[in-house]
Amino acid sequence: MSDKHDTILVYACRHSAYRAADEAGRKRLTYSPRVEIVPLPCSGAVSVHEIILSLENEADGVIIMGCNQGSCHHQNGNHWAEQRAGEVRKKLDQMGMNQDKVQFINIGPDNAHQFVKAVEQMIISLEEGSSREAAG
């Protein structure tokens, strides 16, 4: 991975993913220090523009984590966030870039292990993508 972009940015709904991350800390679960968590009132608050700027300026990968389907505190925020992540993934693919740089994940507040697994899987995915790009 490049030195400039070595952060995995997690946009985390404060009702679900942020609580899962907090629970991971309380359970002393470890994950990469490259992960930076940005709490949001709702995952639906993140825009396509913000995701793209994150990739351009600081992040090697972005994960948007929202409430489980049917559990969004703001009714449809997680659905909007998932659509926006899909839009960015499509744009990355059209530009010949690794679309795995952007992920959307539904997660409940008590899913600390799922939170850790998701961020670690993102790092593995990005490292594999970088290896393929370097070889190709």
From TrEMBL:
Any one Gene Ontology molecular-function term assigned to this protein's record: oxidoreductase activity
Pfam family, one: FlpD
Gene source species: Metallumcola ferriviriculae
Organism phylogeny: Bacteria, Bacillati, Bacillota, Clostridia, Neomoorellales
Keyword Transport annotated: no
Protein name: Hydrogenase iron-sulfur subunit
Residue span(s) of domain F420-non-reducing hydrogenase iron-sulfur subunit D: 8-127
The keyword Iron-sulfur is annotated on this UniProt entry: yes
Keyword field: Iron, Iron-sulfur, Metal-binding, Oxidoreductase
